[in-house]
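hey so i finally got around to running the thing on that chain from the lab meeting. sorry it took forever, my laptop kept dying and i had to restart like 3 times. anyway pasting the input first so we r on the same page abt which one it is
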Amino acid sequence: MIQTVLFDLDGTLLDTAPDLANALNAVLEMNGRPALPFEHIRPVVSHGGRALVELGFGLAPEHPDFEPLRKQLLDYYREHIADETTLFPGMNDVLESIEQSGRNWGVVTNKPGWLTEPLMDALDLTRRTTGIVSGDTLEERKPHPAPLLHACDLIGSKPGDCLYVGDAERDIEAGHNAGMTTLVAMFGYLLEQDRPETWGATALVQKPGEILDWVK
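ok and heres what got predicted. didnt touch it at all, straight out
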């Protein structure tokens, strides 16, 4: 019996791609480069600021300009963190169903807390969740299972009673190693080369409403 549903943030619970794409394009234009089409940026969003800088500027992390550009990107994003970000269509119904059934839901993300917390606050989600674990809450990050197990401790659930939903292979690896049921959010930010059917998830879901089939 699933008692707790844990969500990855970007590309699973929230459609953050518009704001992150706007941030990347703003920084590109600040540095004299042309903006990129949204459809080129969207699949990379789940992989964070480093991946966005690599995409936009073609720089490796060891390049001396890499960290200043990443900071510029994240600072701009923080100032515009919820301009266009929303729950994925149908996700609010999923959350309401979980809440009304007496179950819990939480967030486990690699996004740092200084971005996770204001984003959750801006969308009035912090008060509804029973636990948030960000990328800097612990020393370990996904795909390590520790963040998911920490969420269990915060919420008071056993791993076997938890369902973890994510849109990246590291999410499924972390959930599997934590002993949880795992779902791939196929509506999220998958790269063209991703093969989610090989990740070992319990199931793939095409839209948020299908999550409830596994909760019930």
